[in-house]
């Protein structure tokens, strides 16, 4: 039985999904804070949100890299 | 016979396409991230592209479940014909019932049944069957479910905002998850195209090699690649709306953050499984993710009755497709008359199910009640009307 492979797949799934979801959620939260009407808020909030979304984009590109055999073989 | 098998293989590819649209597109449709018709069109294009991207086909039809090859048994076009028949009929039945079930498991089931009836029980490699079909069927939904559960919890915890003084809720902008859903679901659709169209290409190529029209060991011909790609794309575009309904609103209510968590888990699980060598079924991963994300969001209930029906469907996939495959194999063995009878009976059954499906039409217009749209609330039932009217009153920030 390929138990090792099973554990690897489970672990990789967990790490990948949690990374993407955490980054995207942070992006969403930072956007929400940046959209608040309050006066005192640092100006780097919105750029930071975009950085989070950007990193998610990188994760998607990595997914594409894995899917397309031309790159990963 | 060869022409018949190719036609049947392409039809299987088509059923595979419309059976699996739901895996990628059910949750974005349910949250309103993508309009239903746009979603299936997007999935179809990605499947088409995916099919052209990856054309390295398998060397065996069954991936080792049937002891084929030089030291084993010879899988004849007859057996493939019977196996495909079993797989197609099971795909049609589950579609009619709106059950997401794995197309590749149906194909394995059909082939196994046909091999047992046509060759004998010794032709089956049970260890490989356990490892490639039965264990993944148990673990795929568990892995995906647990990951999606955690992701949903995290997504809601990270985006939940309360005013520190008054304790009232602040805007959370969870609708932003919709944009993310488009990308994650597209990844799932593309991965599906690269994986599943390949299976049909492999079958057709192996049949052509067995018939002597193609050199052994050569890759698929261009027309094979093109026709498989279009068969799966057309299948995807025709949209298995019944299955989309089950996945998008039958199992649990899906909100954007939850849908994004489920989609990310599905995409991660599929990519991990195809690159780390433990094959998981896309359908089972996707169903597990939806259930897991439903458990992770507070205030949602998972309809365990529907989940149970789906699990029951998985349990029957192998034996049911196997029985049809076996019966077809027995018929085919009797000669040309048997082949004709099998082909006519199969076509008849598919036609009957198609006509039967017309009685209760499920299309893009009524597949899923999109949570923010008032237009989809036409088929009010006693219970649904309550939940819909209450969710309509919620402000948009509550997503």
Number of strands of chain A: 0
Order of helices and strands of chain A: HHH
Note the total helix count of chain B: 13
DSSP strand tally of chain B? 0
Largest beta-sheet characterization of chain A: none
C-alpha end-to-end distance of chain B:
55 Å
Largest interface (CB within 8 Å) is between: A-B, 38 and 51 residues
Q: What is the arithmetic mean of pLDDT of chain A?
A: 83
* C-alpha Rg of chain A (nearest Å): 17 Å
Report the structural category of chain B: mainly alpha
Taking the alpha carbons of the first and last residues of chain A, their distance comes to: 26 Å
- Helix fraction of chain A? over 70%
Global shape of chain B: elongated
Identify low-pLDDT runs of chain A: none
Kindly list the characteristics that best describe this protein.
heterodimer; A: 73 residues; mainly alpha; 3 helices; elongated; B: 399 residues; 13 helices; 0% strand
Question: Any overview of this molecule?
Answer:
The complex is a heterodimer of chains A (73) and B (399). Chain A is an all-alpha fold. Chain A has one domain (3-72). In chain A, 81% of the residues lie in helices and 0% in strands. Chain A contains 3 helices and no strands. Chain A is elongated and about 60 Å long. Chain B has a domain at 2-133 and 193-255 and 316-372. Helices cover 70% and strands 0% of the residues of chain B. Chain B is elongated and about 80 Å long. Chain B has 399 residues and is an all-alpha fold. Chain B is built from 13 helices and no strands. The longest helix of chain B is centred in the middle third of the chain and has 34 residues, at 126-159. Classes of the chains: A mainly alpha (73), B mainly alpha (399).
List the SSEs and their pairings.
The complex is a heterodimer of chains A (73) and B (399).
Chain A: H1 3-34, H2 45-67, H3 69-72
Helix pairs in contact in A: 1-2
Chain B: H1 2-31, H2 36-53, H3 77-96, H4 103-118, H5 126-159, H6 177-210, H7 222-238, H8 241-250, H9 256-276, H10 282-296, H11 304-333, H12 336-359, H13 382-393
Helix pairs in contact in B: 1-2, 1-3, 1-6, 1-7, 1-8, 1-9, 1-10, 2-6, 2-7, 3-4, 3-11, 3-12, 4-11, 5-9, 5-10, 6-7, 6-9, 9-10, 11-12
């Amino acid at each position: 039985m390929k138990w090792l492979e099973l554990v690897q797949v489970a672990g990789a799934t967990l790490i990948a999904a949690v990374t993407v979801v955490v980054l995207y959620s942070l992006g969403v939260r930072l956007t929400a804070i940046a959209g608040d009407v309050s006066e005192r808020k640092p100006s780097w909030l919105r750029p930071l949100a975009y950085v989070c979304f950007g990193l998610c984009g990188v994760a998607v590109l990595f997914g594409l890299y894995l899917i397309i055999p031309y790159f990963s073989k | 016979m060869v022409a018949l098998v190719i036609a049947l293989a392409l039809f299987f590819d088509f059923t595979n396409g419309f059976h699996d649209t739901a895996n990628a597109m059910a949750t974005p449709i349910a949250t309103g991230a993508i309009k239903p018709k746009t979603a299936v069109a997007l999935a179809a294009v990605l499947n088409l592209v995916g099919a052209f991207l990856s054309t390295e086909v398998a060397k065996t039809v069954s991936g080792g479940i049937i002891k084929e090859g030089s030291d084993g048994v010879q899988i004849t076009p007859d057996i493939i014909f019977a196996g495909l028949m079993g797989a197609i009929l099971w795909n049609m039945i589950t579609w009619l019932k709106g059950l997401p079930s794995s197309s590749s498991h149906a194909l394995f089931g059909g082939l196994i049944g046909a091999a047992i009836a046509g060759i004998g029980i010794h032709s089956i490699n049970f260890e490989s069957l356990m490892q490639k079909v039965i264990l993944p069927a148990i673990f795929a939904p568990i892995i995906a479910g647990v990951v999606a559960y955690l992701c949903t919890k995290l997504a809601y915890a990270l985006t939940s905002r309360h005013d520190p003084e008054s304790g009232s809720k602040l805007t959370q902008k969870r609708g932003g998850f919709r944009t993310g859903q488009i990308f994650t679901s597209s990844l799932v659709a593309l991965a599906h195209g690269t994986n599943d169209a390949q299976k049909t290409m492999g079958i057709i190529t192996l049949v052509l090699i067995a018939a002597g029209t193609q050199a052994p060991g050569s890759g698929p011909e261009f027309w094979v690649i093109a026709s498989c790609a279009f068969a799966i794309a057309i299948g995807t575009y025709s949209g298995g709306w019944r299955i989309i309904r089950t996945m998008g609103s039958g199992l649990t209510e899906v909100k954007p953050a939850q849908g994004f968590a489920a989609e990310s888990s599905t995409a991660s699980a599929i990519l991990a499984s195809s690159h780390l060598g433990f094959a998981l079924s896309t359908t089972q991963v996707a169903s597990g993710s939806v259930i897991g994300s439903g458990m992770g969001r507070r205030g949602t209930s998972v309809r365990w009755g529907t989940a149970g029906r789906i699990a029951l469907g998985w349990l029957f996939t192998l034996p049911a497709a196997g029985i049809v495959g076996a019966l077809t194999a027995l018929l085919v063995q009797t000669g040309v008359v048997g082949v004709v009878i099998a082909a006519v009976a199969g076509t008849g059954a598919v036609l009957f199910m198609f006509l039967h499906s017309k009685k209760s039409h499920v299309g893009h217009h009524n597949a899923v009640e999109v949570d923010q749209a008032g237009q989809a609330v036409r088929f009010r039932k006693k219970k649904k009307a309550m939940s819909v009217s209450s969710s309509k009153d919620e402000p948009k920030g509550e997503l």
